[in-house]
Each structure stands twice: as C-alpha cells, then as structure tokens.
Amino acid sequence: MTMNHSVTEFILFGLTQDAEKQKAVFGVFLIVYFVTLLGNFLIVVTIKTSRTLGSPMYFFLFYLSFADACLSTTTAPRLIVDAVSQRKTISYIECMTQVFAAHFFGCMEIFVLILMAVDRYIAICRPLRYTSIMSRRVCVVLVILAWGGSCIHSSAQILLALRLPFCGPNVIDHYFCDLQPLLKLACMDTYVINLLVVSNSGAICMVSFIILLISYVFILCSLRNHSAEGRRKALSTCSTHFIVVIMFFGPCIFIYTRPLTTFPIDKMVAVFYTIGTPLLNPLIYTLRNTEVKNAMKKLWCGKCDQLMNDAWGFKCILP
C-alpha cells in the first residue's frame, strides 16, 4: 500500500472564510446540532422504552435515528469548532477516521431506509404473512447485515484514501474530509481511483434509490385493493418514508455519481445530507406519526409527572 507521510495534517477550508459569516455558521450549526441530537435521542429512548412501538417499522426507525445522530456527530462538531478557530487543522489520522465514519453511518442510513421500505412493502402487500416474515429474529439479522454492508463499504473507501500520496498543498476545500476533495490534493493520477469511488459510493446510492422507487411503485399498485381508510393510512406512512428518501438520496446522488468533477455548491449540498437530513428526520417521523407522538407524550409526561410530584407535588398534563 502506497502511503506518503510528507503531509501530516490538513487545513479544512470550511464553508466560508468571511469572519462575520463564520460567526453565523457557529451559531446556526451549534443550534442545529443540539436539536438533531435531542430529536434523535428522544426517538431512540421512546422506541426503546415504549411497549406500543414494538413493530419492525419502529425497530428500524430506532437504528435510523441512531445513524442520524452518529452521521451528524461525524461532521457537525468539526464544522462548529473550526468556525471560531484560528487554526483549522485536522491530522492525517483524524482525517482518515472521518472519511471512514462518514461513509459508514451514511451507508448505514441508506441500508436502514431500504429495510424500512421492505417492511412497508410486506406490511401492505403481504399483510397476512407480515408477522411471520418480519419476525424479531429476521429484523435483527437484517440490521446486522446492514452494519456489515456499511463496514465493507467504508472499508473500501478508506483503503482508497490510504493509497493517496499527499505532497502538498494540504488545504481541503471542504468542511470535512471526504474522498472527492482529497483526490484533488493527491500527488498522482487519480482517474482510476475516482472511477472506483463512483462505482462504489455512486453505485450504492443509485442502486439503492432505484430499489426504493421500485418498492414504492409496487406498494402504490397494491393499494388499489385496499379500503379507503387503508389506502389513506398506507399513503401517509409511505409518503413520510419517501420524503426522507428524496432528502437523503438527492444530495448523495448529486455528489457521488460525478467522476472527476467538483462544484463550489458541493459543500452546501453535503451540508444537507450530513447535517440537514439528520435534523429533519426526527421532525418528519414525529410530526407525521401519531403513534410516536402518543408514545412520547406518555413516556415523557410520566417522567415529568414523577419529577413534579417529587419536587413540588404538581402533575404534568399534556393533551
């Protein structure tokens, strides 16, 4: 494996070099990151402790929220700290770790979204066999396979990154380490590696997106045989999932399916799927899901009630 240690650290250019805009970046993304962690934490704890959210859909939603929190943590803290730092450096090892983590949790989110679509397909198109097909054991095995697939993908990415020799310059025109901006700094012909990146990340994004679209087409076709109430409930659930799919896959396809090309807008597009989507997912799945909202009210009202009774003798009442 070819490794060149003449560059031991990189400088992250960030979203902007304007001092005033950097202050805005710090404030906005600090709030966004806090809300993202809080929202996904509430979903994870609610699903883990609620007896009413035991279906496979919420089992997969648990891991989607976990992947969202981890994906945001991979990139957001570095962006926030660099916005107020004079020296925006990241070591070579930290950079490679960030490449691995970003692709691992991003790929994990892709696979979990596929599992959620498969779950909805079986629930709507094979309702009589749903409980036998999507048993707890099957769901656990599917999640393990998703973890394994994510590890294989991210390992392939980091192996490509480790083969890149860096002789200088060392300024990464991005707010986190990713293969595309790193390829621009490599002291070698990166044409083949770039094609490998596209065939790996780009293929996963495109194939997964096509699989998801096909599954939703089958679901929509099968709804013709359902009652009006059944169609309404199924469409409500599937529309929520489809919104998440579009928000995540749109930017990913834009970034990872273009060989040998980068655009200035790439950084803002990356913000959307690494930081924006993890923020919006909890809002979408709670605001549009009555079961999750009721479970949250029951759980957190109970804790609020207990705290108030212990401290003041008050009761917490939620609608």
TrEMBL record:
<dbReference type="InterPro" id="IPR000725">
    <property type="entry name" value="Olfact_rcpt"/>
</dbReference>
<dbReference type="GO" id="GO:0005886">
    <property type="term" value="C:plasma membrane"/>
</dbReference>
<keyword id="KW-0812">Transmembrane</keyword>
<dbReference type="InterPro" id="IPR000276">
    <property type="entry name" value="GPCR_Rhodpsn"/>
</dbReference>
<dbReference type="InterPro" id="IPR050427">
    <property type="entry name" value="Olfactory_Receptors"/>
</dbReference>
<comment type="function">
    <text>Putative odorant or sperm cell receptor.</text>
</comment>
<keyword id="KW-0552">Olfaction</keyword>
<feature type="domain" description="G-protein coupled receptors family 1 profile">
    <location>
        <begin position="39"/>
        <end position="285"/>
    </location>
</feature>
<keyword id="KW-1133">Transmembrane helix</keyword>
<keyword id="KW-0297">G-protein coupled receptor</keyword>
<feature type="transmembrane region" description="Helical">
    <location>
        <begin position="201"/>
        <end position="223"/>
    </location>
</feature>
<protein>
    <recommendedName>
        <fullName>Olfactory receptor</fullName>
    </recommendedName>
</protein>
<feature type="transmembrane region" description="Helical">
    <location>
        <begin position="235"/>
        <end position="256"/>
    </location>
</feature>
<feature type="transmembrane region" description="Helical">
    <location>
        <begin position="138"/>
        <end position="160"/>
    </location>
</feature>
<dbReference type="GO" id="GO:0004930">
    <property type="term" value="F:G protein-coupled receptor activity"/>
</dbReference>
<dbReference type="Pfam" id="PF13853">
    <property type="entry name" value="7tm_4"/>
</dbReference>
<feature type="transmembrane region" description="Helical">
    <location>
        <begin position="24"/>
        <end position="45"/>
    </location>
</feature>
<keyword id="KW-0807">Transducer</keyword>
<comment type="similarity">
    <text>Belongs to the G-protein coupled receptor 1 family.</text>
</comment>
<dbReference type="GO" id="GO:0004984">
    <property type="term" value="F:olfactory receptor activity"/>
</dbReference>
<keyword id="KW-0675">Receptor</keyword>
<feature type="transmembrane region" description="Helical">
    <location>
        <begin position="57"/>
        <end position="80"/>
    </location>
</feature>
<keyword id="KW-1003">Cell membrane</keyword>
<dbReference type="InterPro" id="IPR017452">
    <property type="entry name" value="GPCR_Rhodpsn_7TM"/>
</dbReference>
<keyword id="KW-0716">Sensory transduction</keyword>
<feature type="transmembrane region" description="Helical">
    <location>
        <begin position="100"/>
        <end position="118"/>
    </location>
</feature>
<keyword id="KW-0472">Membrane</keyword>
<feature type="transmembrane region" description="Helical">
    <location>
        <begin position="268"/>
        <end position="287"/>
    </location>
</feature>
